[in-house]
Amino acid sequence: MSRAVDAVVLDIEGTTSSTGFVVDVLYPYARERFAALIAERSGEPEVARALDQVRAELGEPDADPARIVRVLNAWLDEDRKATLLKTLQGVLWAEGFARGELVAHFYADVVPALRRWHAAGAALYVYSSGSVAAQRAWFGHSAEGDLSALVSGWYDTENAGPKQEPGSFRTIAADTGISPDRLLFLSDRAGELDAARAAGWRAVGVRRPGEPYYEQGVQDHPEAGTFEDISGVGSGA
């Protein structure tokens, strides 16, 4: 990049971390616990709101817990990016991380780069389809310890909007107070990179062999194989 950027906004799945970890570890973890969550904690505000949203989505205001569990599992099978599903997953994952039953995966090149960019004065943000609660738990429980202090803010599809809409990136830019052309978005999905660029951001596609979108590529966006390939971040760049 010709000019340094002031902040990096990170996608998680396929970018900082393996999609396989999400699909093979986190999804089964949530699937095994949906029924107990609904049976035991449906009175908690966050859980109750998500369950009401499931019923509204289905058009079935009287859907019982068994029906909701079946729907949640079907959405998991589809890898649907439904905010209400992500909310319930986030509740379960946060507790799993806190209990030490889960340890977040990061690619080996990611954490050194995040620390280097942070030390160079760049602000770091996360924008993921996973809930903010899940993001905080993820960065708080890595194999290299608690990384959450490196992150200045957290965005998901509820507080920012869908990841393939330029308006979501405008919302984030306004919230951070950083000029769009000083924001860099990293993702493995071309549609998300397109949306960031349409909002005036800079965007780099991260292509990691074995990830679902690797063969699809990042179209006409600059690309990096690892975070080590990304330069121009922070005042020390």
Question: What topology emerges from the helices and strands here?
Answer:
Blueprint: E1 7-10, H1 19-31, H2 34-41, H3 45-58, H4 65-78, H5 83-98, H6 110-119, E2 123-127, H7 132-140, E3 151-155, H8 166-176, E4 183-187, H9 190-198, E5 202-206, E6 223-224
Parallel strand pairs: 1-2, 1-4, 2-3, 4-5, 5-6
Give a brief outline of the structure.
The protein is an alpha/beta fold and 237 residues long.
- List SSEs in N-to-C order: EHHHHHHEHEHEHEE
State the major sheet: 6 strands, parallel
What are the segments in which pLDDT stays under 50 over at least 5 consecutive residues?
Answer: none
Identify the overall geometry: globular
Question: Key terms for this structure?
Answer:
single chain; 237 residues; alpha/beta; 6-stranded parallel β-sheet; 9 helices; 6 strands
Give a description of the structure:
This protein has 237 residues and is an alpha/beta fold. Helices cover 44% and strands 11% of the residues. Strands 3-2-1-4-5-6 form a six-stranded parallel sheet, with helices on both faces. α2 (34-41) packs antiparallel against α4 (65-78), α5 (83-98) packs parallel to α7 and α8 packs across α9 (190-198). The model has no long low-confidence stretch (mean pLDDT 94).
